[in-house]
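Title: Prediction job returns without error message
Component: structure pipeline
Severity: low
Priority: P3
Assignee: unassigned

Description:
Job completed but the reporter wants confirmation the result is attached to the right record. Sequence as submitted:
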Amino acid sequence: MRRKLLLGNWKMNKLISEAKEFALASHELADLATKSNIDLGVAPTFLSLQAVKEAANKNMIVAAQNCHYLPNGAYTGEVSIPMLKELGISWCIIGHSERRTYDNETNEKCNLKIKALIENEMVPVYCVGETLAQFEAGETKKVVGEQVRNGLKDLTAEQVKNLVVAYEPVWSIGTGKNASSEIAENICGFIRDILKEMFGKVSEEIRILYGGSVKPVNVKEYLSCPNVDGALVGGASLKIDSYKELVTNIL
């Protein structure tokens, strides 16, 4: 039985003081999630990682939103995996649609980052998803299939057993438009089929999340789907009250 996972992506939100305040207020929630067999986490900005890691309950996953695939070098503005590890960070989001759109993140670059994270015994949360134009053209499976196959190219079953994949249809992120639970299950099931094709039985251990306008009112419907093992949440993870609602509505 795959353990449920709820991961809040804070994007470019919260000052360090605000992030610390959230972390301190989340202790009881993290304990509740753990007792309920749910993994709970947040992905703050780079500047807030240390403050959240130090202030949060030990059961709270603290993830980075990105990383570079090289350990050091002349890459102005980038953050390396050893830098994250020094802060005690062991999770990292890779390939979020906003990075693909605004920062030219390709499947090939995601592949380099995922390999580097795995070599460093960190957990990659690999995001895939189609745009509205691709969805309306019926190209969802073509696009998502390429993202999964190219992003996870040349990895072994042993390497990917702790990997997390997040399906986020770009057209539903921050728009208020939700993919139906039927669409979420269909595409998450499709992703699992590709993982099985690539890695065999370990595909049953890999957690697949849904993301895109996930709110307290719809989270349970999504997580009731057989192939949806959790949610990557944006706006609803920014306030402790709405994040608590997400957890309690899953139970």
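Comment from assignee: result matches the submitted record. The longest helix spans residues 181-199.
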